Prior knowledge:
Blueprint: H1 2-21, H2 26-35, H3 40-61, H4 63-67, H5 73-93, H6 96-129, H7 136-155, H8 160-170, H9 176-200, H10 206-226, H11 232-255
Amino acid sequence: MLFKLLSLFTAGFFGGILNSIAGGGSFITFPALLFFGVPTISANATNTFASCAGYLSGAYAFRKDLYEHKRELPLIILISLTGGIAGALILLQTPESIFREIIPWLLLFATLLFIFGGKLNSTFKQFASYHQHASIIGRLLLILLLLGICIYGGFFNAGLGVIVLSYLALAGYSNINTMNGLKLLVSSAISLIAIVLFIYNGVIAWQEGISVLLGTLVGGYVAAHVSRKLSQKQIRSFIVMVSCGTTFYFFIEMYFT
């Protein structure tokens, strides 16, 4: 038991570092929970629980940037909470066997988003620059798109940050601090409401989740002090390697064993 908890703490530590520097920590923490025997749906819920503290502390750090958009925040939070509830309910209604089958595809989707997220953001920024004065239909479509993203986040946490950043670029945001703050605020709202449902339904593995949570907090703190000494390119390459390896492993396990 002690070895398992220390291993999960270590996974959370490195996941927290990656989340703070480049994102992608779930590619370490989620498979680690599965490796130590946490059932798939419970592992997904537990990973959401373990990641939430980092979202909250990050959103708080960007509070001044968020305050500049205070008029927009109530609607964004409402949509995030609604989508988070819907996604969590869908997850809880999904049979364990079916969720195991779609895990490789979810990981593949998140991996591709991480790899091509930068290009996606650039494309959306160019698109947004030509559509500064969106019509009512355009704004409605943006709301529906955000709702869909939040449903995904309530259902499966991995890759959420990249998706939200791409959405914000499409919506016309350009200040990176504001975008990061909104990304973390959306992720916090989705995770918090999903966690309430997960707790009510008893699907969080508490010992394992707290071990990962403590690891992410320590990793995030360490990252704040060493991030300037690390190469962003090398870190992203490492995450891509881990995510591709993890995705490949789950495809092999699901379809060839």
